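Morning!

As promised:
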Amino acid sequence: MSSPDGAPAAAEAARDTKGALSGLRVIDLTMWFQGPVAGQLLADFGAEVIHVERPQGGDLGRGVRSIKALPVGDWNQYFLVINRNKKSLALDLNKPEGREVMYRLAAEADVFLSNVTVENLEKWEVTYERLSAINPRLVYAVGSGYGHFGQITRPSFDLTVQALTGLMMRLGEPGQPPIYAGMGSGDAMGGLMAALGIVLALQARRRTGRGQFIDASLYGAQLFLAAPSLQAYLATGDQRHARQQSRRARRNPLWNVFPARDKWITVCARNDDDVWTRICGALDAAALRDDTRFATAGGRREHTADLTDAIDALTSTRDAAEWLARLADAGIAAGPVNNLAEFAEDGQAWANEYLLRTHCDEVNREVTVRGLPIRLSKTPGAVRSLGPELGQHTEELLVDTLGYSWEDIGRMKEQGVIL
Amino acid sequence: MSRALQDLVVIDATTTFWASLGVALLADFGADVIRLELLPGAGDERMTRGGQGRGDGAGWDYEFALANRNKRSIAIDATSAEGAAIVRGLLERADVFASDRQLEDLRAIGCDAATARSQNARIIYARASAFGPEGPDADAPVLDELAAGRTGMMPILGQPGEPPVYAGVGPMYTAVMLAYGIGAALEHRADTGEGQDVDVSLFGGNIYGASLDVQAYLAIGGERFLQPLSRLDAGNPMSGPVYPTKDGRWVTLTMPDTGRYWQAFAQVTGLEVDDARFDTHEKRCEEHRLEMMGVLDDIFRTQDADHWRAAFREHGLSGDVIEDYAYPANDEHARRNRYIVERDDPGAGRVKTIGFPIFMSETPARLRSAAPALGQHTAEILHDLLGRDEDAIAAMEMRHVIA
């Protein structure tokens, strides 16, 4: 799982260059994944992102001990990767003095980002009304569960919201259980939407001089995630777009996954006669080519199940690499269906810094992390540090940024306001 | 009302549904997004956009309509000298150029990064590719199925023994990353005056969407991440699995810290709170994990989905029914938050479409105009943006330089 030879070391150089969002200060009062990953997208591009956590145990994401029934390992990658490049401020917002610290921070910040519940924002007196009164320039961003209007306050986790969008019910073969699009797949979209909302609000602020309230909810983001098939359903009302569809019933049987002997491959080919002839050549399939049922595009569509079975029978006789080479020679777009182990060795991912090696202080060694999916040529993102220890930057922020004295720090520590 | 991206001029040379939709996010928030449509053959090109659902009798091209709302359209033959001059003029005038075309195609129309930059040092040049700008697959065809196949997730989304699952979500992440990357670059430009290149890809989008699985594998490794898991082999019986109900529907649960919910959960499911098999988090998630999933599988089959939804809500449990698209399509809450909106389409009448995933209190997204007809705004753009006079425009129309 190491970086192949010749992969660029741009990440190293980028640590010292200015980020696109340098100079921006963000209060990141978030937990679990949806909120933190929004902050991560800002922090990767150089914003000073301050992860505010309760002194008792911090962000609940720090408590993740296992994933898929496997121990998480000696470093908590769940927390450390989505909170990379951030500072940690351990602050008890249940105490008035803790809230006072928050208000002083809000006065010095550009962005407030949160995915905690509305009840907690109210209890801690860090509502939009409160903070924007202190700092009218503050962009106040919430990643709620279900949206700003309608006051749905029930718990909102990725999966329980994804369940409502309809996406899960259309994935997989008919009769199979509904399929979750991947751990945190909806949270990832929610966080990305919040980050987009924040840069939009920053653009608006440059003109108006004022911040505003924004909400990028899980539900809204996940409905967008489902857009290709959801829009088809909305437009047509056709149940076909809402239901699971068999790979043996595709309208274009040549655009599908097929089993090779060792693994599956994907073929993306138009259903026309020239392409069909080339596919038959690549598959050494004279019998298929001569089968009158499959001689025309209409015939292939009409007999899609039979054709799929016939191609399956052929492709399963040889390994993927051989088929992919033959299909490439025939000018047919095709590729492997890799597993995560193969992905981790994929030179293309390393060449583009979608995978990176970085130092992990917690275990004092290099680890592999999910890298930088958005590349900016002059102000590239960077992984400068993995997630902070709980309260690691509390004193630095209170003294240097907010002007508290060391006496104040001592008193607040004693009273449990800070860690 | 003020708009977030007021006065921003974006040249949109995208061709796919998802990339066009990414640029539409900028248009929704007020940018002047100009679709650059290339003659001849621009009409054919429109038909290649998107994939499924086309021609199924909806009466309107809903993919094009969604992905190009709030945009203007200019149609140009960029291979002619006059057309090329217009393209140069647009690049000179634009704040942002966005495309998902192959490098070769961009060079052919004078819209590659170097040419754009030579026209306009401040321009933000954004490109969505299949596999990213570096590496051996930099010029691969822009097909999400191939990118998704390389990300490692397709083999493990379904049940054991089932075909790999193509979820089709990668392009949506990529679309939003395109818009976000442009936004970050605009911030930098506002501070420094400096434009730059923004690159996103379907591969990067798929990887981002798979963040937690990818990162967990990178850190933990092992066969368990490479094989599909049975639905009754989740890491936590109360967080992640799906269970069938009596009426043939499904419910799912997300209660990672099971202790917090256990009392109420036991009550709702009829389990004993002090059941010695399940009365601690460790027993539920380790020793008796599989047994508990089996027990719950039987329990959830005893009642209809609606019963479970009501019980979860009454007791503040994090669980819900797995719905199909009829639910959001008819959900008052989705309508109220404008996640799904209704509008009047000239051809199809009252239609429903995806709305706006981001709420902004002062500069909200708005539907100002429907997707443009091919070349609908050619004359006004040439006049307003590039200062061409009526006679020159008419002459170019005669020579088929524009349409």
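The longest strand of chain A covers residues 48-53.

Hope this helps with the figure draft.
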